[in-house]
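Before any further analysis, we paired sequence with structure tokens, yielding the entry below:
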Amino acid sequence: KKNGMIGNIYSMGLALQALEATRKFYAPREWDCAQAFSVVYAHDYQQPMAIAQVLPALVGRSYLDAAGLDCAATKDTSPSPQLPLSPMLGTHSVPRAPIQVHYSITNTLQGKHFHYSTSVTVPSGSTLLQVMEVAAEENPQTFSFQTEQTFWGPYVTSIHGLAASTDDRTYWQFLSAGDALDEGVGTYKPHDGEHIQAVFSTY
């Protein structure tokens, strides 16, 4: 993409590894390494899987380098001492200003079609998952949902009783202003007044 994104933020780590490891095969074609890395530097990675995939690229390596590691050269090194934890700076946390997020769920794909919308108030910095939890607390019959934990964080498997299915190639897609979110519900943080849509989709 023009901003340096390769696929989405989840695919960046492996894409950077692949492009760096196969750089000579792309000559004389060039790829904008600096622009792609600027996307990585600007993102606050939180999922362990995403971090594990992007770290090798940040040090100019790829998973392919693991085959050539010399374990004998490092077996005698002792672990570095643990640093003490930083002391708490004060006992009072600063309250976060409330924001309002508009949230809607839509199914025009399967069974009985539906479209429901709500607005919820959450502290600024809340994740989309927290927005969904508040919506479900306020109106469980409409906005209840289920998730399963993955290496990439929580994955929404069902909303309003409608479950995604690999057999039917269906899933719940999350959008903002018509564009698919590039983060999962566990890390994406909506801004004040944003409209998040959950749309039952197929791939």
